[in-house]
Amino acid sequence: MEHYATKIIACCITLGICLILPIGGLIFYAQKHRGEGIVSAWIVGALGFFVPQMLIRLPILTALSANAGFLSWTQKHLLLYTLGLALTAGLFELAGRCAGAGLLRKNLTFPRALAAGLGHGGIEAILLIGLTYINNLVYLFLLQSGGFDALAAQAAAAGADTAQLTAAAAALKSTSAGLFLLAGLERVLTMVCQTCMTAMVFYGFRKKDSRWILGRLGIHFLLDSLTGIPQFLSSQALTYSLVYLVLAVMAALCLWILKKISLAWREEPNHVQ
């Protein structure tokens, strides 16, 4: 019981980060900048992730994954496939950010750029991690109460394939509470980076300077390439240490870039703080 209780607490913390932090951040920032279009900018930023990733890129990847030839190619060229995933993710999200900057171009202020970045990173946290952790919590409560076996038995009696249920239970049993917490830390650092990358694109769009946009693409490519590291390292401790070290350094760099953009924007005529 205590074993699952610790995991449940860890999952609740990460779930809070992925659900409460994005929505709470929006409410706080919208109150601080009333009348400046913060909510609409947040929505535009969220759509800049949702449309290109969830509605276009991921369905394409799902369709390709159903092709035996494509799967065989990915297994033979794992590094190239990993880098390709990172590049396409960056390009698709860049398109979403550029579209968002275009929609907000008539009133493209730093607070709105920041809000759009919070929307982009926030909706990503909600959809990719938050919803998953709701599912994790349901399963953990069932495992703790002993109801999981009954659920699997009911599914089997109904003729459903219980392989996924069994695999999910095995994964939750073998995953430590610390790893669930690390997912929350990863999301905080990633949201910082996503917010900065949106601000970079918006500022580059405003200044008609492609260097900001290309710089953002480079940061995104590096961050997404991190997801492929576990496939090439045998030590889990080394993998996590390397991934989180690079992610922390990139988040610190992104905070510095955000500060630079904020100061540059503030120096422009008719700026909005």
Give a description of the structure.
This protein is an all-alpha fold. It has 10 helices and no strands.
Uncertain runs are none
Give the mean pLDDT.
Answer: 91
Radius of gyration: 21 Å
Helix content: over 70%
Number of separate helices: 10
- The string of secondary-structure elements, in order, is HHHHHHHHHH
Strand fraction equals under 5%
| Broad structural category | mainly alpha
- Terminal Cα span: 51 Å
Shape: globular
How many domains is the backbone divided into?
A: 1
User: What oligomeric state best describes the polypeptide chains here?
Assistant: single chain
Structure summary, number of beta strands:
0
Largest sheet: none
Secondary-structure map:
Blueprint: H1 2-32, H2 38-65, H3 68-76, H4 78-103, H5 110-145, H6 148-157, H7 163-174, H8 177-207, H9 210-225, H10 236-266
Tell me briefly what this model is.
The chain has helices at 2-32, 38-65, 68-76, 78-103, 110-145, 148-157, 163-174, 177-207, 210-225, 236-266. The chain is globular, with a radius of gyration of 21 Å. Helix 4 packs across helix 8 (177-207).
Keywords, please?
single chain; 273 residues; mainly alpha; 10 helices; 84% helix; 0% strand; globular
